[in-house]
Design goal:
Layout lengths: L1 H11 L25 E3 L8 E8 L3 E9 L4 H14 L15 E7 L4 E12 L2 E12 L3 H4 L3 H21 L1 H8 L3 H14 L11 H5 L1
Helix pairs in contact: 4-5
């Protein structure tokens, strides 16, 4: 019983420096998430949701934050739940320099999504961890997304570098600060998806890089 009480204490911990944990699929609902763990994007571009997760050596995969688009809630919940639970499996023995970002791109036909994940060394209140920033794309948009792949990877690595700096400066405010940069990136990708990738990207479209 003491063990159960301890788990309940961990799962209910919702202060600004901790993260909501998903101990079981059955209780994962957006309605259970506080604003510190979920945001609704005004513009989500080609993405269903953007998910920040990490691996806890005791509790397993944990959701740190989800930025979701204005879509079907139930399908988004299923997709986010899957991504949080699967992305970091196989990364437990990751031995890479802290500044290295690894990428994964995988198709999940059963859920009708593609997941573009970036694995990196993040930080929480317990110290350094293995984190993932994952972009969920509808499978129907995959072919349109492929031409943007190289650009997305370049820009997301810049975003992650910014997130790591924010975490090092002030862990408590890092996510709210990072949330200001993410929409700029999404707006850039959405614009390029609509207009196509030009031979050279205008200075105005490079503002995300300059502001980071």
């Amino acid at each position: 019983m003491a063990g159960i009480s301890k788990l309940e204490e961990v799962f209910s911990d919702d202060d600004s420096s901790s993260f909501w944990t998903t101990p079981a699929d059955d209780i994962f609902r957006f309605s259970n998430l506080s604003p510190s763990h979920m945001s609704v994007l005004k513009e989500s571009g080609p993405f269903v949701a953007v998910v920040l997760s990490c691996w806890d050596n005791v509790l397993g995969p944990r959701l740190q934050h989800v930025w979701r688009g204005n879509g079907d809630t139930e399908s988004q919940e299923k997709s986010v739940k899957y991504v949080v639970g699967r992305t970091l499996h196989g990364e437990l023995l990751r031995d890479a320099p802290e500044n290295v970002v690894d990428t994964k791109l995988y198709v999940v036909k059963d859920y009708g999504i593609v997941c573009h994940s970036f694995i990196f060394s993040g930080c929480d209140k317990y110290g350094i961890n293995i984190s993932a920033l994952s972009f969920i794309i509808p499978l129907s948009e995959f072919q349109n997304y492929l031409p943007l792949l190289e650009l997305v990877e370049e820009r997301v690595k810049i975003l992650i570098a910014k997130l790591r700096v924010l975490q090092a400066k002030n862990l408590t405010s890092s996510l709210s600060a990072f949330s200001k940069y993410l929409p700029r990136f999404i707006q850039t990708i959405a614009s390029l998806k609509t207009a196509g990738i030009p031979d050279s990207i205008p200075v105005s479209m490079q503002s995300i890089h300059n502001n980071l």
